[in-house]
Amino acid sequence: MDPGDDLLTEFAADLRRLRESAGNPTYRELGRRAHYSAGTLSDAAGGRKLPSLAVTLAYVRACGGEPGEWEERWHVVAEESRRDGADSPPESDSGEIPPYVGLSAFTSADARRFFGRDKLIEKLDARLTRQRFLAVLGASGSGKSSLLRAGLLPAVKGPVVLLTPGARPLQECAVRFAAALGVPAGALLDDFAAHPRNLGLAARQLTDDGAGDVVLVVDQFEEVFTLCQDDDERARFLDALVAATTGTESRTRVVLGIRTDFYTHCARHAVLAEAMQDAQVLVGPMTTEELRQAISRPAVDAGYRVENALVSRLVADATGRPGVLPLLSHALLETWRRRRGTTLTLAGYESTGGIERAIAQTSEGTFGKFSGRQQRLARQIFLRMTALGEGTEDTKRRIGRAELDTDDEDTAVVLGELAAARLVALDDTGIEITHEALIRGWPRLREWLTQDREGLRVHRQLTEATGAWESVGEDPGWLYRGTRLAIAREWAARQDSALSRRERRFLDASLAVEHAEQERDRRRTRRLRQLVALLAVLLVFAVGATVYAVRAESTATEQRNSALAQKVAGQALAMRATNPALAAQLALAAYRLDPGADERSSVLGMFATPYSTRLTGHTGRVNTIALRPDGRVMATASWDNTARLWDVADPHHPVPLGTLGGHTANVNNVAFAADGRTAATASFDGTVRVWDVSDPARPGPGTVLERHEGKSYAVAFSSAGPLLATADVTGTLRLYDTADPARPRPLGELTGHTSYVNNLAFSADGRLLASASADKTARVWDVASRTQLGVAAGHTDVVHSVAFSPDGHTLATASQDQTARLWDVTDPARPAQLASLTAHKAIVRSVAFTADGRTLATTGFDRTARLWDVVDPKQPRERLSLPGHIGAVGSAVFTRDGRTLATASDDQTARLWDLPG
Predict the structure, then answer these.
(1) 681: which strand partners?
(2) Fewest 10 Å CB contacts: which of 61, 69, 626, 830?
C-alpha cells in the first residue's frame, strides 16, 4: 500500500470518528447542516478517494470539528496523493484536484496555476510602488479579481488586507483590520466612522514591526453602489479609503477592482474621482499568446497534456469576446472532467457545448437533477443571489444563510448540488453565485430575472425590512403598514413559495398589527356613532323633559346636559384630526345639548376646518396631483399603474374623465403643458409618456420616450413653452421639445446629482429649473445653457419636492428630514436659506405656492397639509392645518384663484379643499 493510501485511509477513519463524537448523526442530518447531499458526505468518509476541500470542511463543521486543523491535514494528504501517482491526482468531488478553477475567482493559493498576465502584473506592481492609490478597471469577466488575488497579492512584500465591500463596507473594513490587528471589530468600526483618517492610523499599526506599507485591496468595488443602501456609510468608506493614502506619514496603499460600467458612479463622489484621476489601470483582453499560456500551462504543470487542436480552437473561440475569461475557465474545467486519460481533447471540449454554451449546459444539467419543489427552491435561491441593476447590468449578491430556510432538507440538497457544480460558493456565513458570467450565460436565469423585476424589487425590500425588524428586537414600529403592506401582500399572494419563514413571519406580524389597529379604529368610530345616536335620543328626551318636567327638575336636567355636552365636545376635539366630518356632528350635538359659550366656540372651530371633497377610484397610492392651467381639469398619478383625469370645474362635484393607461409599473408623476392640451407621466417601468389630452374624456395614446435607465421619477413642463423636463433613477435630467407631442425632440441632458431625482419645477418665466434629489440637495439649473447654477445644501436627508415662488426669488424644498425650507434664489448661483418650517412631525413630501406667492402649502407623512403665510419668507407663519386623509399626503397644488387646494394621499384618494378667504 502506498503512503498516500495509508494517509487517505487514516483521514477517512478520523472523519468517521469525528461523526461518532458528534453523536453519530445520520448522513441525511449531516447533509442538512452542511448543504451537501448525504451521498457526497458518505463518500467523503468512505476512504476510496480524497473528497474536495470544500466537502471536507463542510463535513467537519457539521460535526463541530476544527476547520483549520482539518484543512492542514487535507493539504498533507492531497500532496502525498499527488506525489504517489501523476495519473491520479486528487480531484474535486470525485477524487482529483482540477487544474482549472471554473467560474470561481483565483485566490492567492492559486498563484502557481495563474498564467497569461505576467506583463500586467509587472505593470501593476510598478504603479503601486510609485502611487498609493490605484483603480484597476475592467469589464465583467475580464479577470480583475483573479489578477488582484492570484497575480498582484503574491507579489506584495508587506501586509495585505483583502475585502469585498458587501452591504456594509465600512463594517467589513473594520472586521478585516480587526482580524489582522487582533482587536475587537466594534471599537474599530466606531473609530472608522468617527473620522476618515482613522483607517490610515489602524493601517500604521500593522507596520510597526518594520514591515512594508499595508496594501488594502477592495475587490468587487461596485458592491459599494449595488449592495450598500446607506448613503452615509458609503460616503464614510470612500472618504476613509482616500484619506488613508494621503499625507506624508501614510503607510497605506489602496487598490480598487472596479467594473467599468460603474465608472460614472465613482465619478459622482468628488473625493474619489480626484483620487482616481491619474491612478487607473485598464484590464483589457488577453493577447493570443497570453490565452495560450492561460489555457495550457495549468494542465501541463499538473501532469496533463492538452491537444494542440484544442488550444487552437479555444484561442479562436475566445479572441475578441468581451468578458470571456470566466466562460473560458468554466469550459476548460468541464473539458478536464471529460478528459481521455491524462489528455484534454477537442472532442471533450465540444461535448461541453463550447465557450458559448458550457455554463448553460452545466446549469441546466444540475437544475434538471432536481425535483419540482427543488427546482422552485433553486429558482428562488438564484433570484436572491442577484442584485438588480439600475441602469447597469445585474450583479451577484451575497446572501446570509439566515435568508434561506437552511434546515429544510430540499434546500440543503439544492445548495449541495449547486456547490458541487461550482455554480455557487458556500462558507460559514453566506452564499453567492461564483461569477456574474452565470447571470449572463444561463438563459433560464436571465428569463427569471426579466419576468417580474418590480416584484423582485418588492421582495428585496421585504427581505431587508425583515432583517431590520429582527435587528431591533422585532419592534412593532418597524413592521409594514398601509401602502407598503398592501403592495407586499399583493405580491406575496402571487409568489407565496418565494417567501422564507422569516419573511412570512414578518408579513404575518404586519398584517396582525394593522388588523388590530384597524379594528381599534372601527371600534372607536362605532362607539362614536352610537354616542351620536344616543345623543339624538337624549336630545328628544331633553326637549320633551323641558316641556313636561316640573320646574324643580329643570336645574338637574341642565346640569346633566351640560356635563354630557362637555364630554361630547371633548370627543369632537379628539376626532377633529382624523374625522373632521364626524367631529363637526358631535360638536353640533354638544351645542344643542348645552348652547353655552364653550360649546358655541367648539362648533365654530369645527366648521372653520375647511370642507373637502374626496375623489376615489384609484386602487393604489395616489402619489402626485396636477391641475391644468385653467384649473378645470385635474390629473392624479397612482401606484395602480395609471393616471386619471377629472373635471373639477365644480370642486364640490368632481367628475371622472379619461384614464392614462399603458404603464406597466407605478406612475410616480404627472404634469400638464402650458397649453393644457398635453400631459406627461413618469413611471417606474422606466418610461416617460407624453399624452394628447385636448379631449380629457378621451385622451390619445401616449408617446413613449425610450431614453431613461431604470425608474422614471419626475416630469415637469415649462409655463413659458412646450419644454418638458424629465428625471430618472440615475439622477440625470433630460429636456425635450414637445411642440409636436407625437414626436418629442431631445434637447440635452443635465448632470450633477449623485442620486435619483424625485421632483422638478420650472420658474414662472421658464428660465430656471429646480430639481430635488435623494443626494440631500436641491439644484438650480439655467435652462438656456443647460448648466448648473447653484446648490441648495442644508437638508440632512432625501429632498422630495421643490417649488419656485411666482416671482422666482424664493425656492421651497421638502425633505425626509421632517422640514420644509425656504431659500433666497435671487442670485440662483448662491441659494441662501431663509427659514426652516418644522410643524410637520414626520417626513415632508411636497411644497406648493399660491399664484400670488403669499401662501405656501406643505404636505407630509403626518397625514396633513399645512398652509403657511410666507409674505415675509424669512418669518413664515403657519395659518391652517388640514387633517382628513388617513394616509401620508404626498402632493398638493392650488387653483389659480387660491380658493381650492388639491391634495393626493397614500390612502388612495385625492381631496379638494375649500379654503377660507
Answers:
(1) 670, 689
(2) 69
At 569, list the grid cell.
365636545
How large is the average pLDDT for residues 772-797?
A: 92
C-alpha cell at 622: 395616489
Half-sphere exposure for 584 (CA within 13 Å, toward CB): 12
Q: Which domain holds residue 865?
A: 620-912
Contact (Cβ atoms closer than 8 angstroms) between residue 724 and residue 736 = yes
Backbone angles phi and psi of 830, in degrees to 5: -135, 70
Residue 606's pLDDT band, with cuts at 50, 70 and 90, is very low
- Residue predicted with more confidence, 517 or 193: 193
Same domain, residue pair 173 and 93: no
Q: Band the pLDDT of 701: cuts 50, 70, 90.
A: confident
Instruction: Say yes or no: 88 and 133 in one domain.
Output: no
pLDDT digits (tens, 9 = 90+) for 738-748: 988 888 888 98
DSSP letter, residue 338? T
Q: For residues 681 and 661, is the Cβ–Cβ distance under 8 A?
A: no
Task: Note whether 147 and 59 are same-domain residues.
Answer: no
Sign of the Cα torsion 224, 225, 227, 228 reads positive
pLDDT of residue 3: 47
Note the pTM of the prediction, 2 decimals.
0.47
| 429-433 contacts at long range (C-beta below 8 A, 24 or more positions apart) | 429/400, 429/401, 430/398, 430/399, 430/400, 430/401, 431/381, 431/385, 431/398, 431/399, 431/401, 431/404, 432/385, 432/396, 432/397, 432/398, 432/399, 433/382, 433/385, 433/386, 433/396
Torsion of CA 669, 812, 482, 228, to 10 degrees: 80
Q: pLDDT band for 584, please (50, 70, 90 cuts).
A: low
Residue 130 domain-assigned (yes or no): yes
- What pLDDT is attached to residue 917? 62
Instruction: Give SS3 for 709.
Output: coil
For residue 630, give the CATH number of its domain. 2.130.10.10
Confidence band of 55 (pLDDT split at 50, 70, 90): confident
Question: Any idea what the Cα angle at residue 860 is, between residues 855 and 866, rounded to 5°?
Answer: 30
Start-end of H helices in 763-884: none
- The owner of cell 402650458 is 674
Count of CB atoms situated within 10 Å of the CB of 211:
12
Three-state SS string across 56-109, please? HHHHHHHCCCCHHHHHHHHHHHHHHHHHHCCCCCCECCCCECCCCCCCCCCCHH
Rg (CA), the chain: 34
Bin 64: left if φ > 0, else alpha if -120 < ψ < 50, else beta.
left
End-to-end CA distance of the chain: 104
Going by C-alpha positions, the residue among 693, 684, 711 that lies closest to residue 627 is 693
Q: CA dist 22 to 30, 41, 77, Å?
A: 10, 15, 23
Higher pLDDT, 339 or 89: 339
